[in-house]
Amino acid sequence: GLPMKKETYVKMTQPFRDDPKRARALHRANKILTVVIFVAYPCLLLWLLWQKDMRLYKAICVPLDGFIIVTVVRGWINRKRPYEIFELPSVIPKDTKGHSWPSRHVFSAAVIAFTFWFVCPAVGIVFLLMTVAIAWIRVVSGVHFISDVVAGFLFVAFFSLVFLCGFLRLCRKNYWLSFRNWRGVMLYFCLNTRLK
């Protein structure tokens, strides 16, 4: 069955579709929140590099590995987006076909938030709240289903707990899958998977 009924989609997006001012505000909020988080990330990497902080490696590899895996998964599943299924335009202008689950937009923002939390918890919490706002915007604007953004968060939770927090000590002398090997495998599948 569908992850959302058409009536629910219409009821959720109609207030913004009927009011151009609300729609513009939603679009603007989406852009501002996204830009702030995505610009902050390279700044964090530069700061870690400047400080010669050993956490720089994980701060680069974990988001990169996760981004590749999410890209492969959503390309493989290729779930249609709400505006495709219900044949109604989204509030935020978008014409991407498929690749809805999981939300890479939410994943990227959330993994950056968790990376900041790994270095500076206070900033990480602020960015995580901003990511929740982005997830809400992506749903009410008709770009994603709720399950898409929830999946994005779940992917981040896995990567953050396993790799950033080091709950599983994979980076040892005789580890079975290092960050380097993991990334290589994912890049291989990414290059050999047809992504639209």
Structural features, described:
The model is unreliable at about 165-180 (pLDDT under 50). The longest helix is centred in the first third of the chain and has 31 residues, at about 20-50. The chain is globular, with a radius of gyration of 18 Å. It has 8 helices and no strands. Helices cover about 70% and strands about 0% of the residues. It is mostly helical. Helix 1 packs across helix 2 and helix 2 runs antiparallel to helix 6.
Average pLDDT rating: 84
- Give the helices and strands as they follow along the chain: HHHHHHHH
Tell me the total number of β-strands.
0
Oligomer: single chain
Largest sheet: none
- Number of distinct helices: 8
| Structure classification | mainly alpha
Percent of residues in helical segments? Answer: over 70%
**Residue fraction in strands:** under 5%
Distance between the termini: 24 Å
Shape from CA axes?
Answer: globular
Low-confidence stretches: 167-180
SSE layout:
Elements: H1 6-18, H2 20-50, H3 56-77, H4 82-85, H5 104-119, H6 121-140, H7 146-164, H8 179-191
Helix pairs in contact: 1-2, 2-5, 2-6, 3-5, 3-7, 3-8, 5-6, 5-7
Descriptive terms for the model:
8 helices; about 200 residues; mainly alpha
